[in-house]
Amino acid sequence: MRTRAAVAPVLIATIAVVALFALIIGGCAVSGYNRAISLSEQVDQRWAQVEVVLQRRYDLVPNLVETVKGYAGHEREIFTEIAHAREKYFQAQNTGKRDEQVEAANGMERALSRLLLLQERYPELRAQASFQDLMTQLEGTENRIAVERQRYTEAVRELNTFVRGFPGKIYAAWAGVTKAEQFEVAGAEVRQAPRVDFGTTQPAP
After folding, report:
1. Would 68 be classed as within a structural domain?
2. b/e burial code for range 16-52 (CB count within 10 A of at least 16 → b)
3. pLDDT of residue 3
4. For residue 34, what are the domain limits?
5. pTM of the full structure
6. For residue 169, is pLDDT > 80?
7. How many domains does the chain have?
8. Is residue 100 predicted with pLDDT exceeding 80?
9. Does 205 fall in a domain?
10. Which of the listed residues 4, 164, 172, 202 has the most CB atoms within 10 Å of its CB?
11. Cβ–Cβ under 8 Å, residues 42 and 141
């Protein structure tokens, strides 16, 4: 009887320790799972904001192209490049392929940079009030794109760091969360937003 009485407290203490350990492990697992989900949702939310400002850019492009065509209608190569980039973006958006959306957005950025260079060859275009108004709107949009792209990049970096680390990779696998794609600007020529110039650049002779 005395032996049983002596063993009982030890058994109870052991069970308590095991139960406490299980609670700690379970709490960490739930916390890690929720963290993985939260980071993934944050990336999706940031990308949604990127899409909003990209949509604004694509809404401005048709009016901008029509205005430029009035003075440089023979620049068909640039107009075709813009049309293809715009179409490619919306196709990728419909399929939900984020990497293809990024590729198309970079293509549009390159095409817009070429389009804006036309004002150097056509000073009368730059003098048009409608063109200046569109340029003002485009400049604001490009600045917003840069801001939202940076926020998205930070969210992706935070998620990917978590997924690559330990025990984050375990929690991420449990939650079905994977690494996200960065919005990388392709090529040195598009590392800055298309430049809007109302007169600081001298027209070409």
Report:
1. yes
2. eeeeeeeeeeeeeeeebbebbeebbebbeebbebbbe
3. 59
4. 11-190
5. 0.78
6. yes
7. 1
8. yes
9. no
10. 172
11. no
CA of residue 154 relative to chain centroid, distance = 9
For position 36, which CATH number holds?
Answer: 1.20.1440.20
> Burial, 88: exposed, middle or buried (Cβ in 10 Å; 0-12, 13-18, 19+)?
middle
Residue 137 identity: Q
Residue 202 has what pLDDT?
39
Rounded Cα gap, residues 103 and 187, in angstroms:
11
The percent of residues above 70 in pLDDT, for the chain, comes to 86
Query: Looking at this protein, which amino acid is placed at residue 17?
Result: V
- Asked if residue 142 has pLDDT above 90, the reply is yes
- Percent helix / strand / coil, the chain, rounded to 5: 80, 0, 20
Please compute the mean of the pLDDT values over residues 10-36 and round it to a whole number: 80
Q: Is there a domain that residue 33 lies in?
A: yes
Q: How crowded is residue 71: how many other Cβ atoms within 10 Å of its Cβ?
A: 18
Residue 107 has pLDDT above 80, yes or no: yes
Tally Cβ neighbours within 10 Å of residue 150: 13
What tokens does 123 get? 């000073």
CB contact burial 122-141 (16+ within 10 A = b; e otherwise):
beebbebeebbebbebbbeb
Instruction: Classify residue 121: in a domain, yes or no.
Output: yes
- DSSP designation for 200: S
Residue 195: phi and psi, rounded to 5, are -80, 130
4 band by pLDDT with thresholds 50, 70 and 90: low
